């Protein structure tokens, strides 16, 4: 009987595991991929969708376009697994596996901040990006209808909490949309009506970047009308603003929480996995502790590192872990020893909006339009389908000469 390889999650980890399975494995094993959505989502471009510089369909690829027709795809939600019975439970059935790969990603972490989940917007999924984009459009429409200046300013106060790559990229996109596109489109709204805060718990934005690039990013955002608030910790989110750890109330009609992520949990009905920092502990070959046929990869897994903190939750790590896991599945099936995963950092990139970015690649530092062009090119070539690459390239090129598309979705 054919061995059954079951892949949970068709994000970066899951898809790259599938793609790197050698031909002999694909031809001789049954392969099933399960995901709650029917598309692969290219998360690094979510801020561009929220900021209306890309269309929602630009950054997704149907899973069935990526996989071969003989591979089973089930659009469903994983409920739990049982490593003793070697089964995965879905709401309507149970599936047996011989080899399991779990790459179910992560979710927004609110750190228990009161009101954060209730009152803030997030940017984790395609729906979140579409919701934010619609919110921006709706708010500007509403503000344009009021003759009361104070009310207009209240409506047009926005805040992004968290100055890591997601917070910075979203703020850069929003700044361009608000201060360039919308101020041109709405005759009765001027730049002085709009307030866009970026609130940062640390003393600098993009803390993982080189000092010069961090400074450049902060200066660029401030030049683009962003009010940067460093060393400010949000202790509560309310319907009309936030309370800081110092007790200050900052009013904001729209708050976006981009301050943290935590791994999705995977419930094991046979007893629990070893979890630390919310992530499942794995060995150097990405196999979950106390198992020999369960690979946990991407944001979910806590890879052994010297400081015990695991590797960062990034697409490039999930992708490389997927590639390694595909190879290791082949070795496992041949009863060969597994190879250790070694992470090769390819570089750091962050867009700042307005055709500006910072990039740090193999010790070289880039900023400005050149960095933006590199950022754009590298992301483009990470798309599997030529159709999407072309579509994004056209959208970006059109954006160079025209306004963003502010059609409400
Ligand atoms: C806005 C944003 C910007 C980012 N920018 C960058 C960047 O510039 N560079 C970078 O390296 N990283 C970036 N990241 C991080 C990157 O997206 C993640 O690290 C990466 O996606 C992790 O890969 P993964 O395979 O672990 O999870 P994912 O790619 O998230 O895939 C998880 C999959 O599991 C599915 N799933 C989840 N739960 C279930 C369930 N119970 N049942 C069935 N299916 C389920 C999901 O639908 C999803 O398809 C960004 C993330 C966000 C949100």
Range of helix content: 25-40%
Strand content: 15-25%
Give the count of structural domains.
Answer: 2
Silhouette: globular
At CATH level 3, the topology of the largest domain is: FAD/NAD(P)-binding domain
Rg over alpha carbons = 22 Å
Profile the largest sheet: 5 strands, parallel
Name every ligand kind in the structure.
flavin-adenine dinucleotide
Description:
It is a single chain. By secondary structure, this protein is of the alpha/beta class. It has two domains: 3-36 and 76-108 and 261-333, 3-Layer(bba) Sandwich (FAD/NAD(P)-binding domain); 116-259 and 347-401, 3-Layer(bba) Sandwich (FAD/NAD(P)-binding domain). Helix content is 33%, strand content 24%. It contains twelve helices and 25 strands. The protein has helices spanning 12-19, 23-28, 46-50, 63-66, 116-119, 126-145, 149-155, 165-185, 211-223, 315-333, 369-380, 386-401; strands at 3-8, 29-35, 39-41, 60-62, 72-75, 80-82, 87-89, 94-96, 99-102, 106-108, 157-161, 195-199, 226-229, 234-238, 241-244, 249-251, 254-257, 261-263, 275-276, 279-281, 294-296, 301-302, 348-353, 356-361, 364-368. The protein has a five-stranded parallel sheet with strand order 5-2-1-9-21. Strand 19 and strand 20 form a beta hairpin. Helix 1 (12-19) packs parallel to helix 10 (315-333) and helix 6 (126-145) packs antiparallel against helix 7 (149-155). The longest helix is centred in the middle third of the chain and has 21 residues, at 165-185. It starts with a strand and ends in an 8-residue tail after the last helix. The site of flavin-adenine dinucleotide (FAD) has 32 residues, from helix 1, strand 2, helix 3, helix 8 and helix 10.
């Amino acid at each position: 009987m054919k061995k059954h390889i079951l892949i949970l999650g068709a994000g970066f980890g899951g898809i790259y595991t599938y793609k790197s399975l050698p031909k002999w494995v694909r031809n001789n094993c049954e392969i099933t991929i399960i995901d709650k959505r029917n598309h692969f989502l290219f998360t690094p471009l979510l801020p561009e969708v929220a900021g209306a510089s890309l269309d929602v369909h630009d950054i997704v690829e149907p899973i069935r376009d990526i996989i071969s027709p003989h591979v089973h795809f089930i659009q469903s939600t994983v409920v739990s697994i049982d490593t003793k019975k070697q089964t995965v439970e879905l709401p309507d059935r149970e599936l047996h596996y011989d080899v399991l790969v779990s790459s179910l990603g992560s979710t927004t972490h609110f750190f228990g901040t009161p009101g954060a989940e209730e009152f803030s917007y997030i940017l984790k999924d395609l729906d979140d990006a579409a919701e934010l984009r619609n919110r921006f459009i709706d708010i500007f429409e509403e503000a344009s209808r009021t003759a009361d200046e104070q009310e207009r300013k209240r409506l047009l106060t926005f805040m992004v909490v968290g100055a890591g790559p997601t917070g910075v990229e979203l703020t850069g996109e929003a700044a361009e949309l608000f201060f360039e596109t919308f101020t041109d489109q709405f005759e009765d709204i001027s730049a002085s009506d709009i307030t866009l805060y970026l609130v940062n718990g640390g003393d600098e934005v993009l803390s993982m970047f080189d000092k010069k690039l961090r400074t450049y990013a902060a200066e660029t955002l401030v030049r683009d009308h962003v009010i940067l608030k460093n060393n400010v910790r949000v202790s509560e989110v309310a319907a009309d603003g936030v309370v800081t750890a110092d007790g200050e109330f900052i009013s904001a009609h729209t708050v976006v929480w981009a301050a943290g992520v935590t791994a999705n949990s995977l419930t094991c009905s046979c007893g629990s996995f070893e979890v630390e920092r919310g992530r499942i502990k794995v060995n150097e070959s990405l196999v979950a502790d106390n198992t020999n046929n369960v690979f946990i990869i991407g944001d979910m897994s806590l890879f052994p590192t010297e400081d015990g903190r695991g590797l960062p939750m990034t697409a490039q790590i999930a992708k490389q872990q997927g590639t390694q896991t595909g190879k290791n599945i082949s070795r496992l099936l041949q009863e060969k020893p597994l190879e250790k995963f070694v992470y090769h950092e390819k570089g750091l990139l962050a867009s700042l909006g307005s055709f500006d970015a910072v990039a740090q690649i193999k010790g070289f530092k880039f900023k400005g339009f050149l960095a933006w062009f590199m950022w754009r090119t590298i992301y483009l070539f990470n798309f599997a389908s030529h159709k999407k690459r072309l579509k994004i390239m056209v959208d970006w090129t059109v954006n160079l000469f025209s306004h963003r598309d502010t059609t409400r979705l």
